[in-house]
Description:
Blueprint: H1 2-21, H2 27-44, H3 50-53, H4 64-78, E1 80-82, E2 102-106, E3 114-120, E4 127-128, E5 142-144, E6 149-152, E7 166-168, E8 173-177, E9 190-192, E10 197-200, E11 213-215, E12 220-221, E13 236-238, E14 245-246, E15 261-263, E16 268-271, E17 285-287, E18 292-295, E19 309-311, E20 316-321, H5 323-326, E21 333-335, E22 340-344, E23 357-359, H6 374-381, H7 397-402, H8 421-428, H9 503-506
Parallel strand pairs: 3-5, 4-6, 5-7, 6-8, 7-9, 8-10, 9-11, 10-12, 11-13, 13-15, 14-16, 15-17, 16-18, 17-19, 18-20, 19-21, 20-22, 21-23
Antiparallel strand pairs: 1-4, 2-3
Amino acid sequence: MQVVGFSLVLFLFLILSFSSLSFALSNIEASFIARRQLLHLHENEELTESYVESYKTDLKFDNPRLKNAYIAFEAWKKAIYSDPSNITSDWVGPDVCSYKGVFCAPALDDPKIEVVAGIDLNHADIAGYIPPEFGLLTDLALLHINSNRFCGVLPKSFCNLKLMYELDISNNRFVGPFPQPILCLQDIKYIDLRFNDFEGELPSELFNKTLDAIFLNSNRFVSTIPENLGNSPASVIVLANNHFNGCIPRSIGKMDKTLNEFVLVNNNISGCLPVEIGKLSNIEVFDVSHNMLVGVLPNSLHGLGKVEELSIANNKLTGSVLHGICKLPGLVNFTFSDNYFNVEEEGCVPKSRKNIDLNDERNCIHGRPKQKGESECNVVLSKPVDCSKAQCGHTSTPSHSNNPPSETPSEPEPEPEPNPTPSTSSPSIETPSEPKSPPQTPETQPAPTPEMPKATPPPTPETQSPPTPETPKGEPPSTPQTPKPHPPETPQSSPPPPQEDDPHKEAPRGRPRTPPPTHSPPPPVHSPPPPVHSPPPPVHSPPPPVNSPPPPVHSPPPPAVNFPPPPVRLLPPPPVNSPSPPVHSPPPPVHSPPPPVHSPPPPVHSP
Length: 607
């Protein structure tokens, strides 16, 4: 009987263990996988030339590159721990071009052979990591794996992907410093790292590359913005919801011919607005709200002749709101609320002009409604800042104290028990105490707990879930332009994935649109063949497309245009459906309709 009882218990244990495998991985399990990968990558991330030759298989391939691709996909399958939709279930056999989410095209250097040119696994909810063997996909021009649960770091072998043109790994769980392998990719034009857990400093080399679109928002980067920012030819740069500090580099003025959209919402940027911003004659969206900018508005801002959305809200700016800004010809939305302005010049009073949304609330303007109290205004107005003499501090410590980074989670612990906590808890609201009181260790872990202490931060639709990218389309990438029928406009109000510790991080922004992948023509012709004319199928990288017309020809990323004047700006949600790289076609300005409303389930009539 004892043997029978033991056998029954063992049988039940096996059944329960098997059934648990069918569920998606939890956050804790995903974190464990990431840590395990970090422990082993150092030994296995280098691919040797003899690796492929030593790989034994009886399968026959049309060419050696397809064999390499087969080896890479076999390794990737083993690195996947959860695939709820069974996307990779058909990754079997030598015909890798028939694998779901994989697209082939004629090689650039030899059009007679087919090679893997693109991978689109957007919104598949796959959990796993990127193995070193991924570097065998040397013809890959487009990689879209946004809205999954890939974790760990990008292997060094990523440097082998010389033809990579468009990279979208947003809305995942990647960690570590800015991925250095990306800096090895000479032909890359579009990178989207949004909504991950990258941290540390931003490498200055990034702005020396010929990128057209850079999306780094909603990570944990902590550093000043490199002084060579102006060297970048990018048309769209989104750095919102991080912990950048210091000043806006004066070199930004060198981007006058290319920059269409610059979003720096919700960071710890200080100092005055550089006069060089007035040189950005092609800028259409400029948003530096929710920072710590001081001083007066430079007169040079009247040079923003094409600006449509301008937000400087939630800073410590003083002086006058200049009529030269309010009368800019293309201006649709100008938000300067939550500052310390005490004068509104002609044409800047809300509702004084048609077709322009002006917001002056929470300032110090006499006679206007919803302004700050006199005592609150005097604290700042009594200490004017001379921007001609002011110097910008570059230390990162002060920045932490002003806008709590996601590390704030640690604060909750001291509050409950220790007697001294009361004193520290009060400052915690602003986060000045953050660096001091709680241990720093929790920064990457307790995502949920931190939100309670952070209730104070500015508005933030933290509860909303990131937009769900549309499922990858399985169309072959034959036509480079077809994939990009409409660069999606990012869903407006969807906050980052739950992993974001800082609820307020995304709160401040909201531009209903986040530039889609900039014109991404097929990779240059000089290296192993990525799809010359056909990078993988359309996979709209930025958030789900919203009735957007086909992209115009010849302009880079999507400058936002004709946005209704919503004062509330929400940073683009995690990319969804990344469009395959179009050829010189910037996303057209599009009015993004509100996200679809899911109707509740029909009532169930009980018999």
